[in-house]
Amino acid sequence: MIAAWPGIANVAMIAGSYLAHKLNPKPLAEVVAPYFFDPIGVLVRDNVVESPQFPESRFFYWKNSPGKKDLIIFIGDDQPASKTYEMAHTVIDVAERFGVKRLYTCAAALTRIHHSEQPKVWGAATREPLLTDLKARGLVMGGDLQISGLNGLLLGVAKERQIDAICLLGEVPQYASRFPNPIAALSIAETMLKILDVDVDLAELREQATEAAGRLKEMAAEAMGDYIDYFTEPIWERGGPEEEEDEEDDNPNSPN
């Protein structure tokens, strides 16, 4: 099973939603939204009030070729403000019912990487033997870290219920944590497809990553320009001590 919710740099949703779109899986089930979410308002179109809208949390099923493992993909449009632990158990309930042997989530690893660098993929798992396999595939072992939100909590609940679980984390620059990052999502998707032995065309995601890299470069250049403007001042605009003294002498109201 692959599970994804929105998170830092939207890495998990970009990767999970892209794979779901390309694999074209069949609908399997849906979480009862009103139990986990409270609507905070309604939309009005042409002065007519619409019914309350809830985030969707859906399961999809994809049949692999004979001899290979099938996939269940869970995509959650939003994370509930409360009952996150119950939400995680609900997802694991479905995993157990359909005999899922291993669960995957995605997340962002905030590092000091520069936006022009190729992001590495970090790995975390619920058991040591799983880490051995991730190391053999070249994933970075980040040591002590925290995986926030349901993309992380689901791993803990899987461990409680003795289901193997792995999180793939794509490196994201700390200064770009609020910027959607398909670059990190692409690195995660490439790694996950190799692990799952699934063939998916990533051309569109690569295009998104290229466009995002260009926008990040522009953002960084603009931010550097603002930094220079704020913290520097042309020498000819500075008033020296002699200039200040002359101004005081010329002021008839200045004290003697």
From TrEMBL:
Region (Disordered), start-end ranges: 234-256
One Pfam family named in its UniProt record: PAC2
Compositionally biased tracts (Acidic residues): 242-256
InterPro entries: Proteasome_assmbl_chaperone_2 (IPR019151), PSMG2_sf (IPR038389)
Highest taxon, organism lineage: Bacteria
PANTHER family linked: 3-ISOPROPYLMALATE DEHYDRATASE, 3-ISOPROPYLMALATE DEHYDRATASE-RELATED
Descriptive protein name: Proteasome assembly chaperone family protein
Organism taxonomic ancestry: Bacteria, Bacillati, Chloroflexota, Dehalococcoidia, Dehalococcoidales
